[in-house]
Design goal:
Order of helices and strands: HHEEEEHHHEEEHEHHEEEEEE
Strand content: 25-35%
Number of strands: 14
Oligomer: single chain
Shape: globular
Mean pLDDT: 83
Helix content: 25-40%
Strand order of the largest sheet: 7-14-11-8-10-9
Low-confidence stretches: none
Largest sheet: 6 strands, mixed
Length: about 325
């Protein structure tokens, strides 16, 4: 058992300080989360058995009348709720007794801690970015493959069966052209899907693209003036514009947007909900290994990516290119 109390204190205080900024760095690591942060949609939750998103999907009665016409009222189901399970992630930071002895000087201890904690942070950032595009199977959060699905008439999202009659409102838009997209045809398909995802002033505000789809759109603008969002550019993300929406690629090294996909998202209805007591924070106190000379600390997160309107989201898929 290690007896270097100074090392334990340094590990604790360093982790506590670093994890205060880890949640913020999550958004800086991913263009979609950066937009959700801009919109104030990185929300903490106090608790509960599930994360609940209220849904308004119906319309009341509007009656044109004159004189003494009867104005009747019929009770209708206008509201519902989607329920999302808690998903949890943890990254441990461990220091062995041998490492403590070899790095007993104050500066050397800090250097070792910095490397280990930085690695833990990168691990959590990368895994969160990857999960944002997943289908929520297993123990990960439900990402865009689930919420804005290629096959929106199947499966269950937020406890609501998308295949059931009457739940058509809970299906996202999807467009898969019969012919392979090119730089000469991609804008036409983007326009078609954009219109499907629009309702009055409610329109997609960010379009997240894979490398290949972003390249096609970029090439389609060779002879046109390009526009970008200075806020997203200042955050480090390269952007183009399409009808007011930011077009951003999430590819390259460490990018997880699936090939041949372009997500049209209205982020008014997307949120990353985190538990206030488990939002990139150190879990518990000291954790000494039972059968090892080592000290452990665990950085933890709990929450989920939630959706409150599916019909205003869409995905353009270039399956015909296969």
């Amino acid at each position: 058992m290690t007896v270097n109390a100074n090392y334990d204190n340094l590990l604790t205080t360093t982790l506590e300080t670093r994890t205060k900024t880890l949640a913020d760095n999550i958004s800086k690591n991913n263009a979609l989360l950066a937009r959700l942060k801009q919109k104030g949609n990185l929300k903490n939750v106090d608790g509960g058995s599930k994360i609940v998103e209220e849904i308004e999907y119906g319309e009341g009665d509007a009656i044109w009348y004159n004189g003494y016409d009867k104005i009747s009222y019929t009770d209708k189901q206008l509201f519902s709720a989607a329920e999302y399970a808690w998903k949890m992630m943890a990254v441990p930071v461990a220091i062995s007794g041998e490492e403590q002895l070899k790095n007993s000087g104050e500066e050397r201890m800090f250097d070792l801690l910095g490397v280990k904690i930085s690695n833990a942070e990168k691990t959590m950032l990368n895994q969160m970015s990857k999960a944002l595009y997943g289908d929520g199977s297993g123990k990960t959060i439900g990402g865009l493959k689930l919420l804005v699905a290629d096959a929106p008439t199947t499966g269950t999202v937020g406890g609501i069966d998308r295949a059931a009659s009457g739940n058509e409102f809970w299906r996202n838009q999807v467009l898969s052209p019969s012919e392979a997209l090119t730089k000469d045809t991609i804008k036409k398909s983007m326009h078609e899907l954009y219109m499907k995802c629009s309702r009055g002033t409610d329109k997609p505000d960010i379009i997240v693209a894979s490398d290949d789809m972003y390249t096609l759109y970029n090439e389609s603008l060779i002879d046109l003036q390009r526009f970008s969002d200075p806020k997203m550019a200042d955050a480090g993300f390269e952007t183009l514009k399409f009808k007011g929406a930011d077009v951003i690629y999430d590819g390259g090294q460490g990018g997880y947007c699936p090939e041949k996909h372009m997500y049209f998202l209205n982020t008014n209805y997307l949120r990353l909900r985190s538990h206030k007591d488990r939002n990139m924070k150190v879990i518990g106190g000291n954790r000494m290994a039972v059968d090892q000379d080592a000290l452990y600390k665990i950085i933890g997160w709990a929450g989920n990516l939630t959706l409150s309107n599916a019909s205003l989201q869409g995905v353009l898929v270039d399956y015909s290119a296969d």
